[in-house]
What does this fold into?
Amino acid sequence: MNDENKAGQEENSEDRFRILVCIDGSDESYRGLKYAAKLGGGIDADIVLLYVRPIDQGLRSGGLQVDVARSNMLDWGLELPGIKYLKKGRDMLVELGVLGEDWEEQHFHSDVSGTTLGDNKIDYVSKNGKKVVLKLKVATDIASGVLDQWEIGRYDLIIVGASSRWKGGFKSFWDPAVAEKIVVHAPCSVIIARDLEAGNGHLICTDGSEAAMHTVRSDAYLASRCKCPISLIAVSHDIEGEEEAKANIEAARKELKGMGIDVVDAIVKVGNPVDEIIEAGPDYSLIVLADSGKSGLERFFMGSVAFKVMENAHNSVMIVR
Amino acid sequence: MIKRLGNVDSVTKVPKALSRAVPKTITKAVPRLLKRRKNYLYFWQKRWFFIALAVGWGLLSMPLPDGLTQQGMIILTMSIVATILFITEPVPLPTVALMIIVGQVFLMGVDSKEVAKSMMSDSVLFIMGSLMLAVAVVKQKLDTRIAWLLVRVTGTSTARIAFGISFVSGILASFVGEHTVAAMMLPVGITIIQLTSDDPKKVRNLAAVLLFSISYGCSVAGIGTPSGGARNAIMIGYWKEFFYDPTNPETFMFLIDYVHWMMYAYPLFLLQLPFVTMILLFTFRPEYRNLSRAIVKLRHKVEEQGKMKVGDWAAIIIFFITLLGWIFASSDYGMGTIAIFGAVIFLASGLVKWPDINSGVNWGVVLLYGAAISLGLQMMETGAAIWIAEHFLAILAPLGADSGIGLWAAVSALTTLVTNTMSNGAAVAVLGPIVLKLAVAADESPIVIGYITAISSAFAYLTVVGTPASTIVYASGYLKTTDFLKVGWKMALASTIIMLFGAAVYWPLLGV
It folds into this structure.
């Protein structure tokens, strides 16, 4: 039915809205999936569920490949965690009505050396071309697996659960949390899901820059997909900047008006941007921020508002690119 | 279903102007952005490799510290760089092993023949052989038999099953190695959990108790015999290498054989077993006190398999021959040779296929152990080990931990810390020479300190990567990393106290 869809390769269609949801079996990842179902309910959207299994280094299991244990589990007729998680995600989509039981099902498999399972993919395609994909991928580590998947598929949005490890500063310095790594490197917008609940609307942060205006436009597009209300926030460091912040809000409001979208709340605050945004955040489903555009080195030394908010926020954050 | 789908379609109508305006700007910017990101990504992923090299270069260009030779400084630098690479993994781990070989020849000017020789010792042969045996044993599918025996003895109460699992896992693991038993028992544990309830949320605590019974049962057992873990074999190798002198009868005590090791360590393992179950039941409080439904189903499952076959018996017999070989002949022929011998019989008899062994053993790890031991030997020869030992002792002295039980606790804490970040075998290989020299400098028995190091390297209960059994059990997907923290510190505390008690009260009875 889809001619260009051959040998497990996803086609690169530019006019479809493609969402990549990273599933790791946690409740957070399934909340992310629910949100994806809301964003990607339309026929022009595809949802891809991805589970990445890191390749064994062997050292940690004392030189015995964990696969020996995995194949022993398979021999007992037990399902491996990755497949189980993905199937649970699929059942959720069916329950939500995004995935129909009559959709055409295609299986793909490609071997990866050194593992029993290799890469596995199940495509579900509806009659009007909408696709839901379950993918189990083997990669050196989870974040690279997710980023590799982007290379194949070109997604518009990646949804990933915030790792619980995030706040352990010491550990994450050695081995940056998966979510953080994905956000830093992904070429598209990323939602970090943290108690993600749909329905409370988006809070867009604006500082009047071109990147911020782009964020406003992009998020307007996204919010219209899920019919989420949009609010704006601008923070100035001191009283003198307050006027400018108000002007920034007005500019964004005008932009949205031009697209036919009404702004619910417009918040102007004075203080530390990171703290103010985090404080205002929990009233909304998502805090929306522009990628700072700083390079890695600058970010390393100075940090950026976007990254600090992302790390410390109490609810979900979307970085728009 | 279709009706609901129709609904969803109508919900998300995107204004046309919008859908056109945005994605175009995104797609246009992608190729340039992607290229920049790719370059950046490459260096970001390898950043620890460059940091490690920079640290190494910095250390080598520093003036020599007092009392350390140039050679000693190089080997010290190499171990620090290797440790950074071990922990951060910017390059595939076997690469580190290869770097150690290259570094010894190029940087230190050691003869390549010497380096090659130090790479493959009896300990490395033992690690290789026992890994092959591990795959062979797992492939025999004796797990169902073990499960059946287990539930026949324990009955259906959760607490008794939990103790039964850790007891059986422990006894087996003390001889076969913890990874083998963890791989074998994992399906047994999961089957019991799944037969109790399909919903993982309803059996979370039960799952934690049963699975931790496997992993901690195996971990505490790894200390029991020399074949229980690679680290034990490495320590035995170090004792012999460093202290044994064929012309001096007084040094014969440093030749530790299988039975000798068991006399010291096995009682400590047995003493820990009841604590495993108690701590687990106390920490997780399982949802079901009785698992009779699951056990009945499990019995049915096992009975489907029929009677024991000839191959099953043959596998058990071969394994017992190997075990007897270790106990009675390892001091003459080396533990490594006997492990290899066992693997030979399994392969020759056709009970296991070579491709299974080839894909089940991570050969890079064998290489890594070889390189780590070679590094350890160089640390010894160049005097780097004694230099660190003396400085470490100088730090401990003001704390009153430079002798006796204080020193033991310090060594144990150091080992526990290092093991939680890398594998326990590698930790012992790197720390071994240092702590043995520490014992000499502090006028303590190197045997006691050696045991303490080897045994506390099993106390990596806190992290998933700490012990092989934990890593394997974690792969089942039923446990969270936080579970390890929740129960791990209690286990580490209990184990350390039991070990120090053994070192202070029990070992003197054996005349150390």
